[in-house]
Amino acid sequence: MPMGALWRDGRLYVPDGPDLISLQDTDGDGRADKRTVILSGFGHLDNGGLHGLTFGPDGLLYMTCGQPDGYKIKRPDGTLLESKSGSLLRCRPDGSDVQVLARGFENLVEVAFLGTGDVIGTCNWYQRPEGGIRDALVHLVPGGLYPYVPDVGTPLPVTGSPLPAVTKFPAVALSGFYVQQGAGLGQEHVGHFFSAQHNTRTVGRHVLTRVGSTFRGEDSHFVTSDDPDFHPSDVLEDADGTMLVVDTGSWYIHHCPTGQIRNSPATGGIYRVCRNGVKPPDDPRGLKITWDRAAPNELTRLLADSRPAVRERARRALVARGAEAVPALARTVQSAKDVAVTQRAVWTLCQVDDAAAGAMLRAALGEDQPDVVAAAARALGTRGDRDAAPLLRQLIQPGVQPHVRLAAAEALAACGDGSALPAVWAALGSAEAPDAILEHALVHAAHRIGDALALTNALSHNHPRVQQAALLLLDQPPRPTGALAADVVFNYLATEDEALRRRAMERLERHPEWADRALGRISDLLGKTDRRDEDDEVLVRLVTAFEGNQAVRERVAVFLRAYDPDTHLRLRLLRAFAGTRLRPAPAEWVEIVGRYIEYPDPAVRAEAVHTAAALQTPALDDELAFVTTADDWPAAIRLQALRGVIARRPRLETGVFELLMSELGKSGVPAERLAAASLVGRAELTPDQSRRLIETIRTDTMVSPTILLPALSRVKDDTAAAGVVAYLTESLARGWEPQGEQLEELMADLPSSVREKAEPLRVAARDLVARRRARLAEFEPLLTGGNAERGRLVFFGNKAGCGTCHRVGDQGGNVGPDLTKVGAVRAGRDILESVVLPSASFAQGYDHYVVQTNSGEVYAGIIPQPHADVLEVRDSAGNVTRLHKTQLKRLKRQDVSLMPEGLPAAMSREEFRDLLAFLQSLR
Fold this sequence. Notes:
By secondary structure, this protein is an alpha+beta fold. 40% of the residues lie in helices and 17% in strands. A hairpin with a 2-residue loop joins strand 18 and strand 19 (214-224).
């Protein structure tokens, strides 16, 4: 799927994964007859492949990609540039000198440039959804790391914490992006950014104002539609200044929360947005201008033309003239009163390969206009102008405008050498603390220009920000292994500066070979009688970081065997054990957990059972099995114990089965019913138990048959199997949607005498689309007329139980998607479909998987990051089981949601109407 196209100098650049290609028409017949591969090696399995092509003001080609597609690009010297992390890359138009500028994205979609050279981009999944917020506009800076995806394989340094967003959004699916250059929408919109927001049926407007070295965005809707099939995927400015909007309609649904049950798909289109009363310019593309005869002075005058396409063509013509154009461009830089015109001249000089152009750019660093100085600094950085370094060193210091300091720091990274490092340290350690973006740029500059000796000396600097930078950079390439001494890092654990202490701990966690040194510090902390909270934090993090070392594990075990009275620390260590990445679980941990299951303190016992359940180790099965049958233990702890053992001991003793039935029968407590149902679904039931189960949940709309089906499909008794078929048939009438593969597996397992009774299920599966449309038509009138306040009570009440799995604001569960802003990102009809037909579409990150381990254990649930080394499987009750990918025999995505299909049947029509009103009001 080629995503985007870009014209430049008679070539059409197209992302054609795994390649970036250019197409040319060499014989003038209007068809491409020459295909050239510019770059190759981009992943193309998902929608995170190569896209977002645009040329920057520096004449370089910028492109974006997401994960897990990434890239593996072979350079001319045979080395590889590769990563699975979504990134911003750039190269020359011919594909040479390819570089990674920034990374850490799930999906960076498109970027646009200010006249200063600042880069702003649209980013989906900037963060895990929190408070309904997920996507963002980001300020992209060289070397930047952004929060969602850890750095994987890029040659860029980690300079500190991931960088902040300009402005954040719900799951709007930010897509195409541009900055308005012409007056076709009205003069007041020139310089505004516009974004296509696929999920919200919106084109957004963004007015950026400077805050320190970065920006704050003021966001509003510019184009909106109530049509659920309008999905803008791109916006761009036409040559006459009008806006073009590309609408994909209803056909693109991959990863997007868009309803899929439609009577007729909308195929989309391209729309033009014009401003009433604005007369389009004559000859917007400059086709009447005799370009090859225009003198440089004429071309520089065109840099002030009102037509953006003409201005850009004049720039390209001046670049082609080379040294001949420099005098005219120099006069423009020195005399133009319009900052934007001066910036265009600066960026044109940037692309002219001539010494006089470099001299003119260095002179521009002394201009009075900060935005011109910022553009000149970045232009010099693009050229790698070493003669500019002394001037840039002055511009990074406090007292200069922050955005100029940022541009100068970016340029110094490319133009400077070790002699500039003292100036970087002075800027970084000044009393006027740099903001996060500027601090990153200064550290990145230090990375580019400082060697190991200079960075080691910086560890003795009097400012902790400089020491932090040295700690980070000494421990990363191209500094040699061992450049950062273990003793130095451990000494920083005792510093009073919290940020420096945190950075030191982050470094320690990357060095398992420092375990012997860590063991000494762990012993010291365990022996302290006056431990503070920060001591406990350091201790637990050290234990976690060096858990692979047997001596460390044994030292902690000796401490915990002593029944030290510090319950708080004991609980923290047990939680650390629960999160271990080691498989199988360390024997030392297992032994301690087994001891603490019988500990007198109820809080410790409960934490030990929870940890044992998370470890999923056969060595604790006897202890956990005992807890499941202990009538005097709280029900919640007994259920946790059962979670830890049921994968290996699926048969339920009578007392345990009765506990589960009791929990399932608690009609007013949805969370406990779901927890019990997830356990029953993994059990091996006797015929009597299966009949009792069906009696208990026959009319329960909260518990989906999907959760119970693994257990019910194993029933072989004729009578009990007939009861299973009857229950599933009734569930079908309430809205349950069996999938074809599910049914075939069920039918194969049923006794032959019962299979004929199950035939209606097969028929229902064949008529699934018709049934879905009928159900949506039945409830569609309820999308209007409801009361949102009453709907809130339904959402968080026990009858529907939506708040058990879903969060709104600071209330609710974390099993399903955060719904805090769902009304802003999904049309009413799509919300209706997600409630009535939850298996029709899945929100990205909430797919349902079934996992089978090498030892035969089976787990089912949501896996937020199925490509990670350690999978977190979250079941319908919110419990998490961690499995290393080496333990997996089978990982399969399911077409069935964990969400129950019969929720509308649990409510009256008026209650459902109110619930829909509440969900639509969440903006």
